[in-house]
Each structure stands twice: as C-alpha cells, then as structure tokens.
Amino acid sequence: MTPPSVDPALAGLLVEPPTRIPWYLRVGLWWARRATGKEPLPGRLLAHFPRGAVAAGLFELGAAHAPRHLGGRELATARLVASATAGCPFCIDMNAAGHAESGLSMAELTMLLQLDVERWHELGPREHAAARYARSLSSTPVVVPGDLAQLLPQVYTSREIVVLATTIAQVNYWARFCNGLGVPAAGFFDERACPLPVAREAPAR
After folding, report:
1. What end-to-end distance do the CA atoms of the chain give, in Å?
2. Residue 170 to residues 10, 58, 78, 79, 120, Cα–Cα distance (Å)
3. For 129, which DSSP code?
4. What pLDDT does residue 9 have?
C-alpha cells in the first residue's frame, strides 16, 4: 500500500507528503483511494501530524448524510456555497461532482458556485436559507444577519440548523487546510461538461 509519489512543483504544494506514513493511516488512505478513485492528497499531507489526521478522519466520519440527517439538496447547497466562498478548488471539485445525485441541476450548480445571491430564491426556501447561512458562516467575520436568524427557525428545526452549521464548518476546515497547503482540484468533476465558475471576492455587507 505504498502511496504513489506526488510532484509538489506540479501540484503547487507548500510541503511534500511524508515518505513514511503510520500503518493505521495507510489503511485509511487506501480505503479513501478505493472509495473515490482519486489520490487522497489532503489525507497524505495530514500524515505529517498523525494525531491531526485521526481527528480529521473522525470528523469526516461524522459528516451529515442525506436523507438520514438532512435533505440532499440542502446539504449539497450548503457545501457548494461554503466551498465557493472559501475559494477552495479541491472542495469545489469534490462537492460539484455530487450535485446531480443530490438533486441539483447544472443551472443551480452554476448559480451557487457563482455566488449569484440575487437568484438564490429560485432554489426554494430551505435551499435559499442554507445558501445564505453557508455564505455567512464561511465569510470573515462571521455575521448572521437578523433576517436570516429569524428565517432559519421558520424553515428548519433546531436539530437541522445544528446539522447545517456543522456541515458548513466541516467544509471550512478542509477549505482552509487545502488552500493553506496548495492542494489542487483532484478531478472529481468533469469541467469539460461545465467549467466551474468561482467568485472569491469578499461578500457585501
């Protein structure tokens, strides 16, 4: 289970993956590679700090899934907007790949990744609220506008709001980790079908 080499110059990485990885992390990396068909570069980089890798793995195992925790459209909307707001190529690539299975059309995907706030109402009330919440929690400083704070309990239960907040925070963890180390997109989404537009400017307040 020796991982293939990665050229940090080609990948634009800040650091090279470690050459020696603990056996228990190699098992996890093998599983991730088999499940996704892609090289789990963020996981390999985390192997520099095994304790952090284990913590991140447990955090990922606890990720919300549809329909057990929340609807697929709502979860996908939150993940896409958080990814786009943070400007994380790896996160955008991964989350865009599952848009159809989550019930989002290509037009909705483009609208979300362009951060076209004026059109988000076309998504439906729950997706609209999820998009706005993800935008707010993924911006710095975090500010939840008063009207959004009033809207969320009208369309979500308290448990669902916590699931949304956890999901958005999880995306932001990976976005900042991947951006900070220069992790590129892995090719989960075929951009030949639709180039991924990403707006990275700070949101208007």
Report:
1. 49
2. 27, 11, 11, 9, 22
3. H
4. 39
Supply the angle between the helices 106-113 and 89-97 in degrees, to the nearest 10: 160
**From CA 186, how far away is CA 126, in angstroms rounded?**
30
pLDDT reading at 10 higher than 70:
no
To the question of pTM greater than 0.85 for the whole model, the response is yes
Give CA–CA dist 174/83, Å, rounded: 9
For the chain, the structural domain boundaries read: 8-61, 72-177
Most confident of 34-38, 56-60, 126-130, 194-198: 126-130
User: Could you tell me the pLDDT band of residue 130, with boundaries at 50, 70 and 90?
Assistant: very high
CATH 1.10.3720.10 holds for 72-177 = no
With 80 as the cut, is the pLDDT of residue 122 above it? yes
The contacts of residue 156 (CB under 8 Å, 6+ apart) are 126, 129, 164
Q: Where are the beta strands (DSSP E) in 77-158?
A: none
Task: Kindly report the backbone phi and psi dihedral angles of residue 49, in degrees, each rounded to the nearest multiple of 5, phi listed first.
Answer: -135, 80
